[in-house]
Specification:
Strand content: 25-35%
Low-confidence stretches: none
Distance between the termini: 21 Å
CATH class: Alpha Beta
Number of helices: 4
Structural class: alpha+beta
CATH topology: Ribosomal Protein S5, domain 2
CATH superfamily: Imidazole glycerol phosphate dehydratase, domain 1
CATH architecture: 2-Layer Sandwich
Mean pLDDT: 96
Radius of gyration: 16 Å
Largest sheet: 4 strands, mixed
Order of helices and strands: EEEHEHEEEEEHEH
Strand order of the largest sheet: 1-2-4-3
Length: about 200
């Protein structure tokens, strides 16, 4: 059974349509109007083996903030809905991903408790025309709307593009690992009996 979501989000600032298949092959069709962000979402999808179709129109003439944050919100909501009651998922994953000189780490707990710890130092303010501070905004919106505990860390790196790419790849890979079904897990993986 494939776990998926199809939905949209519309505000005065953005309009987003998305389809997500958790159990996919890493196929992506993404257009947010922000080329660098599209590239990172492709990395997330490809390395997480999730199929993602996402079209966003936002007030890019203001800046990229609303679009990046709202994509994180919808992607988080979509993952949460796609996983349903979370029966038999492994729940946890910690992934390290290198990207040339950079090494990124993402640890995830699909717990129902939203939290973000973001420990990343960037070298500059932008990579191309993309403000690097928006990376944290995306991860926060994603974590808080998916109901996951998320720890994000750049261990080292000199190139902001490489640092960010390592983190997006790590996030995809961690979600892939944590959402895997294990027949040994009866119900949810919690002594409480619920997540």
């Amino acid at each position: 059974m494939k776990r998926g979501f199809e939905g949209s989000r519309k505000t005065n600032e953005t309009e987003i349509k998305m389809k997500l298949q958790v159990d996919g092959e890493g196929e992506a069709l993404i257009d947010t109007g922000i080329a660098f962000f599209d590239h990172m979402l492709h990395q997330f999808s490809k390395h997480g083996l999730m199929d993602l179709s996402l079209q966003a129109k936002g007030d890019l003439e203001v800046d990229f903030h609303h679009t990046v944050e709202d994509v994180g919100i919808l992607l988080g909501e979509g993952l949460k809905q796609a996983l349903g009651d979370k029966s038999a998922i492994k729940r946890y994953a910690t992934v390290y991903t290198p990207m040339d000189e950079a090494l990124g780490m993402v640890a995830i707990d699909i717990s129902g408790r939203s939290y973000l710890h973001f420990d990343v130092i960037f070298r500059g303010e932008r990579t191309g025309n993309f403000e690097v501070q928006l990376v944290e905004e995306f991860f926060r919106a994603f974590a808080f709307n998916s109901g996951i505990t998320l720890h994000v860390k750049s261990l080292y790196g000199n190139n902001d593009h490489h640092i960010i790419e390592a983190l997006f790849k790590s996030l995809g890979r961690a979600i892939d690992e944590a959402t895997q079904l294990d027949p040994r897990i009866k119900g949810v993986r919690s002594t409480k009996g619920s997540l």
